[in-house]
Design a protein that fits this description.
The structure holds 3 protein chains of 3 kinds. Chain A is an all-alpha fold. Chain A is about 75% helix and about 0% strand. In chain A, β1 and β2 form a beta hairpin. Chain B has 9 helices and 10 strands. Chain B has helices at about 40-50, 70-80, 95-105, 120-135, 150-160, 180-190, 205-210, 230-235, 235-245; strands at about 5-15, 15-25, 30-35, 55-60, 65, 80-85, 165-170, 195-200, 215-220, 220-225. In chain B, the strands form 2 sheets. Chain B has a 6-stranded mixed beta sheet, with helices on both faces. A 4-stranded antiparallel beta sheet of chain B has the order 2-1-4-5, with helices on one face. In chain B, β7 (about 165-170), α6 and β8 form a beta-alpha-beta unit. In chain B, α3 crosses α4 and α3 (about 95-105) runs parallel beside α5. Residues about 245-250 of chain B have low confidence and may be disordered. By secondary structure, chain C is mainly α. Helix content of chain C is about 70%, strand content about 5%. Chain C is built from 15 helices and 4 strands. In chain C, α3 (about 35-55) runs parallel beside α8, α4 (about 65-80) packs across α11 (about 215-240) and α13 (about 270-290) packs antiparallel against α14. The radius of gyration of chain C is 19 Å and the shape is globular. Residues about 1-5 of chain C have low confidence and may be disordered. Classes of the chains: A mainly alpha, B alpha/beta, C mainly alpha.
Chain lengths: ~290, ~250, ~325
């Protein structure tokens, strides 16, 4: 029983991490209709920056600085290359970000080398918390809590601030945004940076429990894509919900039949697509006929 | 009963009833115009009739048969066709290729996987004939996006007709045209109406009054009035809707 | 072009040139020795040509066709190792198995387009990758399958062709390529092929002409999947093994890239040119620089930003409308 509880809580923690990554991905997808393949490698950069910065400014410092750096990378990518693909054949944006992700993954290898690293959780978060009925890792609690905080912040921004409202409007009607006199390209760059920062934050907090190596970006991008389609493209709560579902099912299936745990998300996806072609909470959008 | 009837056709988007309980009977062989201010639901109505969107409630019957939930391609095969308010052609392809695709479809090729498309003589003849009929011979090789707007409007209607419909729905066929081109299309429509049943959405009242056998006035998704041109012209409610609204009788 | 009678209708001039160049390849000084590489080029050309039915002609951006390549590869390998050690049957299996899966996946994606279509093809193709990785009994897991030999072709009473000899296998693959290219050409220039292009140009209008576009899209998906599978089977025989990497999404990205690079969106032969350039440069790059992935990725970026119509698009001048 306590084993099931353990796996369930791990699943929730994983799910929340997935949700943060998926959220950034779906924002970019919803607002600019770009499948951002670099999202995985940005996540990796977050972890690697945390690894390098930790010894100088500690984990807390890295938690602030690393996502900022990833945001800068995102800014550079968007301004130099990615923005040129908006509005065109979606394949181009996909291939462009695919090429960028390959190149950037190689850059990671060139800077930090091929082998993996481990990032230690900060000392005050090491060890377990005694919940009475079980012991659970303090760090995972922290991870979960921080993820929830980040998700909440994004939600507040989108729902409660005027600029957030513009971004939501821009996702469905870019002409209206221009008509309102707002700078559309700048808004899109901003959204991309937010997405990048989300990936970076996720990378930092994942680093202590995820093995930090050059291919870690790919490892998170696949589930992220499945989650985004499962939850419904462009849907905020869809990403969260789907993230949790995928995290939970992946974790719990390890208990029963470890071999298929990788495949569970896809099976779920295929089933959901048959029953609800737009995903769990997706709305009919211009993205499909 | 006419060629097309709708019973309580309703469609909402969000909270807005774009088409509200429209029950209509289109008389066979006549030209019916659908008029009304912008946002009155005219294009949505056409979308519903041709299967592009599904109604929330209501039925559509074509020649007695219920076509309410059929997909577009099946409705087209039964004999309804439609032209678009915003020109909806194969813009990158040439004039010839646009008509050709319609003729190929109508003649039922499409499943042929190994035949040479270039060698379909009946399609080639049909295409050349149609292009000659609409007076655009000589422009076959021009990509549609480079044709003049007037030519594109004619082509828009022509391609819709390649499916050999018995009912043709035309959504603002003279939109954006100068008066000479308007007359050209207007005459074209009058000729057409002797061969098929036409339903035309229009804003240009001169055109409407000169070509229509019947007029239906839509306002906020509902039928406000219907009848012959004279009856509608004299209708108080219609005057009010037009004078009170943003879109006057041009 | 096109409707001349007789041979011209089946094998236009450009196609004959391609065939002749490929046929003479082994005899070209210096580069003719690299038969394995040449065979790879022919295999990927086949893959890319079939894929272009979906991408260039129908306009559907599948980013998951590497899965069908891999399914064909494994299909041939598994059949060879566990059922029958032959040449033809494993290849037939690669076609059949890939075709069935492509038909099934096609059902899920036929009504989609654009990004949605691309995303779902990525996601679904990953299933097969993980299955190959995890289902060790069947696929050998991480180590994959090996020992898939090229059996000789025996024509009883006449002769036996040893396909294990590289040059024999090269011509074997080339003959299959020639047959498939002719088939794909006919398909692309048939009334069916015209409908696919209509769907690419304006799907709604195509529906309003009376075409059930979902069925056509499904058919294009399945057909291209079949050719992908055949290419995969031929590849397995080339390297005598099958590894999970054949199902990797980079394969999917590669085939899209080479199709675009060569100019598949404007020219029937674009994919062949793209495959040749892509495979050869990748081989050269990886031999000379350990961090070749950097250049590889940047090439993608360069092509997308500066020559999106591909090389034949540059050379051909104005964008051709209906693909020739």
């Amino acid at each position: 029983m306590s084993e099931l509880l353990q796996f369930t809580m791990n699943g929730l923690v994983l799910g929340l991490l997935f949700a943060v990554v998926a959220l950034g991905f779906t924002l970019i997808l919803g607002v600019m209709q770009v499948i951002n393949f670099t999202h995985g490698v940005l996540f990796a950069f977050g972890a690697y920056f945390a690894f390098s910065l930790q010894r100088y400014i500690g984990f807390g410092g890295a938690l602030i600085v690393a996502p900022m750096l990833v945001g800068v990378i995102g800014l550079v990518l968007e301004r130099l290359a990615i923005h040129r693909t908006y509005g065109g054949n979606p394949l181009f944006g996909l291939l462009l970000t695919f090429g960028l992700s390959m190149a950037l993954e190689e850059v990671i290898r060139m800077i930090w080398g091929k082998p993996g690293y481990s990032v230690a959780a900060p000392k005050f978060l090491a060890g377990s918390l005694d919940l009475g009925f079980m012991l659970y890792s303090k760090y995972r609690f922290f991870l979960a809590g921080l993820s929830v905080l980040v998700i909440l912040l994004v939600w507040l921004f989108l729902e409660k601030t005027p600029y957030g409202a513009i971004i939501k409007a821009g996702a469905s009607d870019s002409e209206m945004v221009m008509a309102l006199g707002k700078n559309l390209p700048r808004m899109r760059t901003f959204v991309f940076i937010i997405g990048a920062i989300l990936a970076g934050v996720a990378g930092v907090i994942a680093a202590p429990i995820w093995s930090v190596r050059p291919t870690m970006g790919t490892a998170i991008l696949m589930p992220a894509m499945v989650i985004v389609v499962l939850g419904g493209i462009g849907s905020f709560w869809g990403s969260i919900l789907a993230g949790l579902i995928v995290g939970l099912s992946t974790s719990i299936s390890v208990m029963f039949w470890a071999r298929i745990s990788d495949i569970i998300p896809f099976v779920l996806l295929a089933i959901i697509l048959l029953l609800r072609p737009r995903g769990l909470m997706g709305e009919k959008s211009i993205l499909e006929v | 009963m006419g060629i097309l009837t709708t019973e309580n056709l309703t469609k909402s988007f969000g909270g807005l009833k774009a088409v509200d309980s429209v029950s209509l009977d289109i008389e066979t062989g006549k030209l019916t115009s659908v008029i009304g201010p912008n946002g009155a639901g005219k294009t949505t109505f056409f979308n519903l009739l041709t299967g592009l969107i599904k109604p929330d409630t209501g039925r559509i019957r074509f020649q007695g048969e219920d076509i309410t939930n059929l997909p577009i391609h099946q409705i087209v095969k039964k004999g309804i066709s439609r032209s678009f308010q915003v020109i909806n052609l194969f813009n990158e392809l040439t004039l010839y290729e646009n008509v050709w695709l319609g003729v190929q479809a109508q003649q039922g090729h499409g499943r042929e996987v190994f035949a040479d498309a270039e060698a379909l003589n009946s399609v080639k003849e049909g295409t050349s004939r149609i292009i000659a009929e609409i007076g655009l011979s000589g422009k076959e090789g021009t990509p549609v996006k480079l044709l003049s707007y007037g030519d594109r409007r004619i082509l828009e209607i022509t391609v819709s007709m390649t499916t050999n419909p018995s009912l043709l729905l035309l959504d603002e066929p003279t939109s954006g045209l100068m008066s000479e081109d308007r007359r050209r299309i207007s005459d074209f429509l009058k000729k057409l109406s002797s061969r098929l049943t036409l339903v035309v959405v229009e804003h240009d009242m001169d055109v409407v009054l000169s070509i229509s056998d019947h007029i239906v006035v839509l306002h906020q998704g509902k039928i406000l009035a219907r009848g012959t041109p004279d009856e509608v012209r004299g209708n108080d409610k219609v005057q009010e809707a037009y004078l009170g609204g943003q879109h006057g009788l041009t | 072009m096109g409707s001349s009678s007789g041979w011209g209708k089946w094998i236009p001039a450009q196609m004959a040139v391609v065939f002749i160049v490929f046929a003479l390849f082994p005899y070209i000084p210096f580069i003719g020795r690299y038969l394995s590489l040449g065979t790879e080029v022919v295999i990927w050309s086949l893959f890319a040509l079939g894929f272009n039915i979906l991408l260039g002609y129908t306009g559907l951006p599948s980013f998951g066709h590497g899965a069908f390549f891999g399914i064909g590869a494994y299909g041939a390998g598994i059949f060879f190792l566990h059922v029958y050690k032959g040449v033809w049957l494993p290849l037939v299996m690669s076609i059949v198995v890939a075709g069935i899966f492509a038909a099934l996946v096609g059902l899920l994606v036929a009504k989609k387009k654009g990004i949605y279509f691309a995303l779902i093809t990525i996601a679904l193709s990953q299933v097969f990758y993980f299955v190959a990785f995890r289902w060790e009994e069947l696929t050998g897991g991480e180590t994959g399958l090996s020992g898939i030999d090229r059996m000789p072709i025996d024509i009883p009473g006449l002769f036996s062709i040893k396909l294990s000899t590289p040059i024999h296998y090269y011509y074997f693959v080339l003959v299959i390529f020639i047959i498939c290219t002719i088939l794909i050409w006919r398909l692309a220039h048939s009334p069916f092929g015209r409908v696919l292009q209509a769907i690419r140009e304006n799907e709604v209008r195509a529906r309003y002409l009376g075409y059930n576009t979902a069925v056509y899209k499904w058919a294009a998906f399945a057909i291209s999947g079949v050719f992908s599978g055949l290419a995969g089977g031929l590849y397995t025989l080339l390297i005598n093994s099958a590894f999970a990497f054949v199902l990797d999404w980079t394969q999917s990205g590669n085939v899209v890239m080479m199709t675009l690079l060569g100019g598949g969106t404007v020219n029937f032969f674009g994919p062949i040119l793209g495959a040749a350039i892509f495979i050869v440069s990748r081989d050269l790059l990886s031999a000379y620089w350990e961090s070749w992935m950097l250049i590889y990725g940047l090439i993608f970026v360069f092509v997308i930003l500066f020559i999106p119509s591909g090389i034949l698009g540059l050379v051909g001048g104005k964008k051709q409308t209906i693909l020739r």
